[in-house]
Amino acid sequence: xxxxxxxxxxxxxxxxxxxxxxxxKYENPIEHTCDVREGQQWVSIDGQRPKGMCLSAWxxxxxxxxxxxxxxxxxxxxWMKNPMSxxxxxxDGFRPFSFYIEVVE
Length: 105
Prior knowledge:
It is built from two helices and four strands, in the order βαβαββ. The protein has about 100 residues and is an alpha+beta fold. Strands 2-1-4-3 form a four-stranded antiparallel beta sheet, covered by helices on one side. About 20% of the residues are buried.
């Protein structure tokens, strides 16, 4: 049985928020945190993690990317203006990045 072609999904790093008050209160000092930069983009093929995508960020968005790749969307009954997209943040509680994920032609 032939498999259906899957959508390509573009992932764009939109914005990082930094909570310095929480970092000062709870985080041990660390030298290296996140390599992601605003505007950086990746393309997921067949719902797979793109090369160079942060593993932690990927774990936060994987299910949404896989669903979009399969042609599913409209998460949470009309949450996004573009039903074939989502805005997902990584799970870093001190400096989360927001990522826009969308189906591309």
